[in-house]
Structure formats: structure tokens, C-alpha cells
Amino acid sequence: MSLLRIQGSLADSDLHCRWALVGDGREPVLGEGRIDGLPRRAQRVQLVIPAAEVLITRARLPQGAARRGGAVLAFAVEDETLGDPEANQVSWLGTDGDSEVLAVFDKNGLRRWLDALSAAGLEPAEVVCETLLLPLAPGEWSVGWNGIDGFVHTARLEGAATDCGDSQSAPLGLALMLDAAAARNALPDMIAVHPTSPDEAPDLDAWQAQLGIPLRLAPPWDWSRAPREAGVNLVRPRSRWRVPQAGLSRLKPAAWIVGAALAIHAVALVTDWALLADQRRTVRRQMEARFRTLFPDTVAVVDPALQMRRKLADARHIAGQPDSGDFLPMIDAVAASMNELPADSVRIGSYETGRLTLELGAVDEARLRRVVARLQQAGYAVDIARAATRPGQPTVLVTVRAS
Question: 263 pLDDT exceeds 90?
Fold first, then answer.
């Protein structure tokens, strides 16, 4: 698999870069120029950020905050960056002990590079820091040195850029890092110095005398020749859910089974609905037929149940018997059902042809439910509505109808 590594400064608005096309078992093809001159057929693209443009630091974060990222991480390192937190991209690299390791770099610069690479048809699979590409042996620190300045890789997820020095004077930043490690009782056994420019190896004896740590001269190193899996991705893209082709072929039988089950369920629902609708029509026809048998002079039958109830009420009135929809039976049933309500709870009552409407004041909800239950058990239909007919005085409208 071919790998295209691109190194460029996030502060460079011209997007000038150095690149290396790494193939399997072949020497890298190196180049330099603008993005529009990059090779286009690489199977994997990696953007390498210079060591001086990435701050790797530690922070203690609330549980779960590290993986959420975003503004939470940016404000967690606000004291170290001394700038606008919104201008920094802060990425979680991992956990070391009781601290989280974070990488801080320029958000706008990164977005500019990623947008330009995307427009050129190159989607970086990874964004890595030059510092963490430097090889690291157990018990050692690694220093990349170009004769003027460099960077140091101190642990799997940690490192930093150094300040200036020369062949006789070690960088002051490296000495300070050793002092901090000594305070934590974490000094390395040795420091490996990798020249990153030809013939720029420092005087190891002079450096060793200043730093107080054994040094060894390691092979020259260049970011373009780093192992393919070296480094840590600083920007973890949101994973896209994809089903492999082989997985799709295995899912086809299950999909057919699910589709068949849904189809059977849909047919069953439609059949059940059709049967219920047919039963409803049959019952209505029977009710209409019975009503017309009893009352053959009726011109139209719109609602046989309602019309039958009204005919029954008329028959009772002719026989001198009260009907449940008359005022006196209704008010008697309502009064019996509302006997537990306060005496002044009923404000207004009105009756009209089998319908009694009562306006109640503020009533306890539990009591009102018991009243409704009693009326329904007595064979009445009850509707409840809430209104405010008077400012600041809640009102409950109870409508009782003969079923």
C-alpha cells in the first residue's frame, strides 16, 4: 500500500509542503512544492505537522471529558496556551497514570490544510506530529537535531520541541526537561541523538558534560523514512459505518427473513382491520334492521343506538315513567356522586335535553376522578374541561350525558 506523507507548516498560507511517496520495499520518492503538484494515486495520505507547532501537555480532566473533546479540552489547557481557546485544536492522545495527554495546535491552520487537500482529491487518513514519529527505545529519550534546534521524544505519547543550541551547547529546554524528570524520579538511562541534517551531529562529550546523562549518536533520521505505523493520529475522524461486502452477502438471508416477516405482519394487520370493519358494518346493519322492525315509520336511520334510546325515552314518558336522561333522575345521580365535594364547589348548573352541565370551582383531582367514576358506573357519559371564566379562578366544566 502506497503512503503519501505531506509535511507543511500550519502557519503557511501558501500551503507549500515537502512530500514523500512511500511504496512497499522501495525508496521513498521525495518532492517539494504546492498541493496541486502532489501525487494523486496514493492509497493512504498522512499530514505531518512540524514538532515546533504542536504542544504536547498533560491535564487532569473530569471523567468522560477527554473523549468528548471540543471546547472542554481547549479550556482545560487555557493556562498553558495563553491565547484564545477557540483558536486551538486540542486532541486527546491517551492516558498516562492519572493524567490525560493532550496535543494542542492551530485549528484554523489545520482546517486550511485539510480543506485544500480535500479539494485536491486527497483526504488525509491521519494527522501526525513529527515529534512522535522519532524512534524511541525503552529507557531512552530520542532527540532529533538539525544543528540549530530540534525536538525530543520522551515517552510513547510525549515529547516537545527544543530551543536553540549548537554543537558545543545543549539546548536549555532539554536541560529543563531533564530537571523536571529528575523531580519525578523519571530520568532516562540514555539519550539517543538523531541528526536530522547531514553532518550536523553535536559534540556528545560537551553535551553530556552539561546534561549529566549518557548520550549516544543514533543513525540519521528523517520524517519521510519513519515506519508506516509510527506516531499517533492527532485528529481522529468520525468513523463512517460501513458494512463489508462479505458481511452484506451474509446479511441477505436475514434481510429476506425480516422482509417476509414484515410483509406477513402487514397482511395480518390489513386482514384484521378488514374483518373488524366488516363486523362493524354487520352490527350496524343488524341494529338498523331491528330499529326499522320496531319503528317501521321512521324515514331515515342515521344513528340507530341514539335513535333507539330517544324512542325508549319517549315510550317511558308516555307510560308516565322517568328516563335516565330527564332532569330529576340526572340531578339525583349527580348529587349522589358529588356528595364528597365541598358544598360551595358547584357554581352554575344548566340542563338541556339529556345533558347536564356543571361549573365547578377548584376541586381536588382525586375527588373529581371518583365523581367521574361513580357517574360512569351509573350509566352516564362524562366530559371534563378546564377553563378560567373568572380571572385567577380556575374552573372545571363537567358535562354529564345520558348514554
Answer: yes
Q: Which of 51, 69, 50 is nearest to 59 (CA)?
A: 69
Mean pLDDT of 115-119: 89
Check whether residue 336 and residue 292 sit in a common domain: no
Q: Provide the residue range defining the domain that includes 53.
A: 3-225
How many Cβ atoms from other residues are within 10 Å of residue 47's Cβ?
Answer: 23
User: In the β-sheet with 150-155, what is the strand arrangement from edge to edge?
Assistant: 158-161, 150-155, 140-145, 190-195, 215-217
Q: Residue 166, SS3? A: coil
pLDDT band with cut points at 50, 70 and 90 for residue 119: confident
Mean pLDDT of 187-197: 93
* Residue 69 Rama label (left phi>0; alpha psi -120 to 50; beta): left
What is the 8-class DSSP label of residue 389? E
**145 lies in the same domain as 24:** yes
The pairs formed by 58-67 with CB atoms below 8 angstroms and a separation of 24 or more are 58/96, 58/99, 58/100, 58/101, 58/102, 58/158, 59/99, 59/100, 59/102, 60/98, 60/99, 60/100, 61/100, 66/92, 66/95, 66/100, 67/92
